[in-house]
Amino acid sequence: MSLKAVLFDFNGVIINDERIHLQLIDEILIQENLQPQKSQERQTCLGRSDRTCFQELLVNRGRVVTQEYLSQLLNRKAEAYVLELEKLEKLPIYPGVEDLVYQVRSQNINLGLVSGALRKEIELVLNRAKVAEYFKIIVAGDDITTSKPQPDGYLLAVERFNQQDPELNLQPQECLAIEDTPAGIQAAKQAQMQVVGVANTYPFHMLQRCCNWTVDYLTDLELERVQNVFSGREPQPSISEC
User: Fold this and answer.
1) What is the structure's pLDDT at 18?
2) Cβ contacts of residue 25 below 8 Å, gap of 6+?
3) pLDDT above 60: residue 101
């Protein structure tokens, strides 16, 4: 078996924008005459899609949630997100993203992205970071109705790679996911993928228990060593459940 595809998460892995997201969610809740997020709700939202997050926040506050109402709030947040990023001269892209993208491509490994963020948000950031052309497959929050920790997004990415190139015959076990939250890690593991946990959002020791590899920064990831494990030249790291 070889490593055929690397699948990045987006928020918390490519861009350091969790603070912006949480702020915008609170602003919309207040505009809707609802209480902002509590500390526990903020933690619960990390790694999950905006749709799922908003739905739970609204239900918790006794608001009747229709899909039309939910879509309206999501579009408002996406527009506000774009405006926030336009204010920034330089995007808060995590160190090592660009280098890892180029390493993956230089090894002829396919590159994809699986996120609960909306496609317009993802494409804006990838274009500004000048790496959009390298991501062959993007599964965004617009594409699926479920959220991490469900594996649907990762499984859809595999399906789309194979639709794009049937000769690739990609299997989930030939994919490496890069995640920063327990929800994302669980989603990738349920899809039967190996996982790198990057300690951007949660402490290293928390991720280390349930990832195949854990790094403080993407710059610490040794792609060659990962490839050796996939090919059987090095032993498989042991992991436990998150």
Assistant:
1) 87
2) 37, 45, 50, 53, 54, 57, 77
3) yes
In terms of Cα–Cα distance, which of 121, 148, 122, 161 is closest to 47?
A: 148
Query: Residue 230 carries which side chain, given as an amino acid letter?
Result: F
Q: How far apart are CA 141 and CA 152, in angstroms?
A: 11
Residue 3 gets the label, from left (phi > 0), alpha (psi -120 to 50) or beta, of: beta
Sheet holding 194-198, edge to edge: 137-139, 110-114, 5-8, 175-179, 194-198, 213-215
Question: Kindly report the CA angle at 130 between 128 and 136, in degrees rounded to 5?
Answer: 115
* Domains, the chain, with CATH or none: 5-16+93-231 (3.40.50.1000), 18-86 (1.10.150)
pLDDT tens by residue, 14-48: 999 988 988 999 999 999 999 999 888 888 887 78
- The CA distance from 175 to 194, in Å, is 7
Q: What pTM was estimated for this model as a whole?
A: 0.90
Mean pLDDT of 108-124: 94
